[in-house]
Here is the input.
Amino acid sequence: MDRIIVEGGRRLSGEVRIGGAKNAALPILVSSLLTDGWNTYENVPRLQDVRSIQLLLGHLGAAVEDSEDGVIRIDATGLSDPEAPYDLVRKMRASILVLGPLVARLRRARVSLPGGCAIGARPIDLHLKGLAQLGADIDLRHGYVEARADRLRGADIYFDIPTVTGTENLMMAAALADGRTLLRNVAREPEVSALADTLNAMGAKISGAGTSMITIDGVEALRPARTRIMPDRIESGTFMVAASLTKGDVTLVDCEPDHLGATIDKLRLVGSQIEINGRTVRVRGPEAISSVDIKTLPYPGFPTDMQAQFMVLMSIAGGLSVISETIFENRFIHVEELKRLGADITISGNTAVVRGRARLSGAPVMATDLRASASLILAGLVAEGVTEVNRVYHLDRGYESIEKKFSALGAAIRRVS
Ligand code: EPU
Here is the structure.
């Protein structure tokens, strides 16, 4: 199994190109199930999670063509098998996104329940409640969700909690339902808007994405479309934190600053200088990092997917920082590993109190979640000596060539098989 070895202490400088967003690519690739014909997707990141969704779509009967230059083409004319098996779903929870499209297209679906995960319980009850309100009969049997509907009918659906993939699942199902669907209290994440744009390019009638209420007027059929995947805001934020941590001077190219509001605001409070110029963002890290408090919230609040990376920054800040995680109940799994590097962190419930220290010191570490693993690489960049990050496959799920990108910025980092 691969490991990443980082020697801390290098100041990062130079340019880094931000790749396509994992969490936009996954639902957008799945939307190909809603139509016959070849859909084309550009700027698709080469990630393990993208490979997992390609495998799943292939399993369901879609034809998938993958060229090396980030272009993927998918034709679901041959969609035949409505079953997403446990083996594929357990590797990636986002597989649940096929549920809505399968019911809309094949009138039935059998999708393995994703089960628990390292960052929390992560139920899918809101996906199921919404689909039932669209008229699907839903049973849970032998670890699978079984859903059937001769015809989905538009409905007025309220989400108790704004859920990103729940909103996406329902939006895809409602695109082919009879009549109007209202989705209330939905997720406002940019990835939801990106999916709505793709569905509209396919002929869907969706408005309001990016606000807390989405209206969908169902259509008889959709047609294939061409989509460019938007830049990854979490990869962007991760490199911005890296520049800030190392007193670096890093320019992010091909990113979308509009999606980074909360992250940029917090980094400026930390002392980083941030210049925005179109799709380019230059980040210069401060000589001394100031501590700030963080509370994760649904978009446009501070992203839970940036919490672990920010905690590293706070662990070498000059003061005390309170970090509250309100989205996932177990998303502090990086804390024990950061403590092994010398960080001073106390957890009480969903709150972490971080007392900034002058320095961290390298050690072997491991994490069981994607963003937690990224935070350990960041910690390795500033820790004295060598940090060895194990279980790198979590990183490969969501960051493309992370060690190559850091290395090009001057980090002493390498992958060992
Ligand atoms: N929730 C429910 N019931 C549901 C669905 C969600 O109670 O039916 C709860 C969750 O337990 C959580 C909250 O609602 O407390 C929000 O979860 P959400 O459904 O929005 O999360 P998700 O759609 O499963 C996506 C991203 C995550 C990201 C979260 C929050 C994708 C593929 N995944 O997950 O990304 O952390 O939104 O922004 O879009 C990552 O990339 O590392 C990652 C974990």
